[in-house]
Amino acid sequence: MSTSDEKLPLSVLLFHAAMQRRMSLADFAAVLGLSVATLRSYLFEAGSRSRMRSKTVEQMAEILNIPANEVRERAELIPYDDQLFSEWLKAHMQGRFTRASLCTATKISDSAMKNYLNGQTTPDPDNAIRLAEVLDADSLTVARLIIASELRRRGVELPSAPRHERTVPVEPMPEPKPEPASTPTATTVDGATPTPKSDTVIDEATINAYNEQRLLNLWRRLHPQGRRATLTYIASLLAEGM
Question: Where is the composition biased (Basic and acidic residues) (predicted)?
Fold first, then answer.
C-alpha cells in the first residue's frame, strides 16, 4: 500500500519522533523495548511491520500519541519515491557549507558526513536533527527522505509522489563568470608604446609625440653618465640657438 495524501508511514513518524528526542536508533529502540536490529527492520524493511507485537504497537501509539489501530494502518504504508538523501544533502550544502564547515556546525564526524554524501549510509535521528537545524530544513521532510533512501537501497520499489508532494530540488548557485582577460598593450623593445595602426591618416602631432616618447625611453635606458652627457649636449645646442 502506498502513502495516502493524509497519512505518513509509521516508519517516518517513528524516525521523526526519535529526531525530536535527539536520540540515536539504539537509544530510541531501548525506549520502545526493542533491539536495534528489530527497530531498523521496522523502519527500513517493507513488510516486517506486520509482525509487530501488540505491546510494541501500544508503546508506539503512546509515543506518537495516536490510536493503536492507526499505528497498524500506518505500518502498511511506505513513503513516496523522492530525492536520495545524499542528493538532497549536497543540494542544501551548495554555496553554503563545505564538508568541513558542515561537520563543525553539526558536530558530526568527517567520516560519517562523507558516507552521507556518498550515499553509503544515512544519519541516525540524532544526527539527522542536527543537519535539519543547521541547514534550516523541515525535520519531517528529512525523516521522510532518509526512510525512502534506505528502502530504495534495499531494493524496495516506491510509488511515485503526486506533483504537489514532491520535494523541490534546491538549485545550485551559479558559478561566477570569470572576468574577461584584458589584452595587454604591446610595447617595443625600448619600452615605448608602438605607433597605433589605423586606417585613418595620423597627424604630425601624434607622430611627434610618439617619437618624443621613444627618445625619452631610450634616454632613460642610458647609463647615468651617458644621460648627463646627453643633457649637457642638448643644453649646449639650446645655448647656441639662442
Answer: 158-178
